Write a sequence for this structure.
């Protein structure tokens, strides 16, 4: 089941209950949980200081005021004198395309390609390039991704990997890279139509392929239960060597 399909089924009226059957990968066992639906406020951006001059910047999603929250976080990071950043896109399901492109442009020099929309045979591609002048064009960066990094977060990760040769650490991303439009039909019905695919600067489609990181570091259930984060540890190690 795709992430967006699961989210659609889980969402519902506040205060009602949803039952989840969880398949524990590699064990063959399943567990059932009953969860009461509630309003959850998820931050768009958060950051903290790690060892030395390394800042940890997490973009949780590309909704709401993500661009403003991102700009404020970067200002605080630079004011703190930190010169290296771990950009964490793990678990980021995507969101607003324009937000991911705007944030990508903060890292990527002028004229460099961020992403292209391929509308099919015989149709011209739409290229999105960086206007330049970004605050982090010369900053040392490592990006964290995993199987739940999807859509707009994959566009950002792909742009940083291809157009700035930034190292990606973690696990292969989800592979959701289509352009979809809602078309109003008679009787109030809506048709969701896929019209294009997102293409990375390298020429590779994001859709169904995902993005394989430069350094693959699995995150096991045991790691999570023990509070370990080998992916973050590796990212710190890579940055310390820069």
């Amino acid at each position: 089941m795709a992430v967006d399909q699961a989210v659609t089924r889980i969402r519902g009226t506040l205060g009602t209950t949803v039952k989840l059957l969880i398949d524990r990968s590699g064990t063959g066992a399943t567990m059932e949980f009953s969860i009461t639906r509630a309003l959850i406020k998820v931050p768009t951006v958060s950051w903290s200081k790690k060892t030395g001059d390394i800042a940890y910047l997490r973009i949780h999603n590309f909704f709401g005021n993500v661009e403003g929250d991102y700009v404020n976080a970067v200002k605080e990071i630079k004011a703190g004198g930190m010169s290296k950043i771990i950009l964490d896109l793990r678990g980021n399901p995507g969101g607003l395309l324009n937000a991911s492109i705007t944030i990508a442009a903060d890292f990527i020099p002028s004229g460099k390609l961020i992403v292209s929309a391929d509308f099919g045979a015989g149709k011209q591609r739409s290229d999105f390039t960086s206007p330049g002048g970004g605050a982090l064009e010369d900053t040392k960066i490592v990006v964290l991704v995993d199987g739940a990094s999807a859509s707009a977060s994959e566009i950002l990760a792909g742009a940083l990997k291809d157009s700035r040769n930034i190292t990606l650490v973690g696990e292969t991303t989800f592979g959701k890279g289509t352009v979809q439009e809602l078309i109003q039909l008679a009787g109030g019905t809506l048709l969701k139509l896929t019209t294009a695919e997102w293409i990375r600067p390298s020429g590779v489609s994001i859709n169904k392929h995902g993005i394989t990181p430069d350094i693959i570091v699995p995150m096991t259930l045991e790691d999570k239960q023990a509070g370990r984060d080998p992916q973050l540890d590796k990212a710190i190690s890579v940055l310390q060597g820069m």
Notes: The helical segments are 3-10, 66-79, 97-105, 152-164, 221-225, 230-240. The first strand starts at residue 17 and ends at 24. The mean pLDDT is 91.
